[in-house]
Amino acid sequence: MKIIYLTDIHDGLRGLKEVLLGTEGDLYLFSGDIIYKAFFNPERIIEFVTLQEEMYLITEDQKEEINPYDYATRAVRFPEKYPAPIVEKSHEYRRLFHQASKTMKEKYELIEIIIQKYAKAPVRLLPGNYDIDLQYSALYERDLHRKTFEMNGLKFAGYGGAPIITSGIPEKLAVKFHEYNRNGKSYSEPEDFFNEERPDIVVIHNPAFGYLDKIPSFGHVGSQGIRRYLDENSPSLVVSGHVHEDQGIIKKGKTLFLNPSNFGPVDSVFGFQPGGFFTEIELENDLVKSVKLNRLSDHSIRRLLEVDCTGEKLSLTKANPDSEVSAEDFIR
Questions:
Q1: Which of 10, 74, 233, 288 is disulfide-compatible with 264, CB 3.0–4.6 A?
Q2: Read out DSSP for 25-80?
Q3: Which residues contact 258 (CB under 8 A, 6 or more apart)?
Q4: In the sheet where 147-151 sits, what is the strand order?
Q5: Residue 69 covered by a domain
Q6: What is the pLDDT of residues 160-198, one digit of tens each?
Q7: What domain range includes position 229?
Q8: How far apart are CA 128 and CA 136, in angstroms?
Q9: How many domains does the chain divide into?
Q10: Residue 318 pLDDT > 90
């Protein structure tokens, strides 16, 4: 069985079309951050982000936990209970919120058209922290968040989102990553979900703590709950994304962990990240046989690394001498 896997598309639709056209597989998996920006107009993005951050500051002073959209809705419905400037901001926030939602849904519809036209195999995907819940979009039938499916005798299960607030995304429509510590007790919905489903293939946007989740100068940011699940269980494959900077592949027992890094280009605090990375994963029975790291560049697909996963240790079987990716860094 061959899986084409990529993550963090970030509006890279032209590249997505090229990969669908230029690869052959039994299944395509995309794990989150399908969209990058909720507006096409940069000025509108800045306007929405600025107002959203102001609304978050206002809601922090409330006695109850409430998101900016719900707060703004109350202010609009009961203007006599709120200062006039707050009511004015609330009207504007709701207007921009709905525009952002409409634009994102149009983008998802375009992605669905691209998939239907060019994909030669089934496509399943997850929302990330840059997405809204895909149940509201044209991609809802492909959504793997808190869902499972079986293929070639293997059970796939997915959990999307990440435990952070992403500016510029309509927060009320985003997937909630239900994991927290309160009063000395921890709760993790993804941990409970995977414990219930016990999949062979784990598809996540936010990685498990300690597995390809390290941000430079900050440390590990992955899910403690998913890590607890993986410490007690051994799926064949765990694919993740979210942390572009911790590209790599790790083998622990029979489990292979993979983060190919971002497919779509992004600007970050670490500079411009052009991306283009995606992988081809070969499975034989219920074990990963090989992983090929590719990069889409100048509308052409280049093989960077090929990793043999059949032994106790990972081994490099082929490398592109012009690759910017270090085999030693990619294989942990």
A1: 10
A2: -SEEEEES---S-S-SSHHHHHHHHHHHHHHHHHHHTSSS---HHHHHHHHHH-GG
A3: 5, 212, 237, 238, 239, 240, 248, 249, 279, 281, 291
A4: 147-151, 154-159, 201-204, 237-239, 255-259, 248-252
A5: no
A6: 999 998 999 999 999 999 999 877 788 999 999 999 999
A7: 2-42+97-330
A8: 14
A9: 1
A10: no
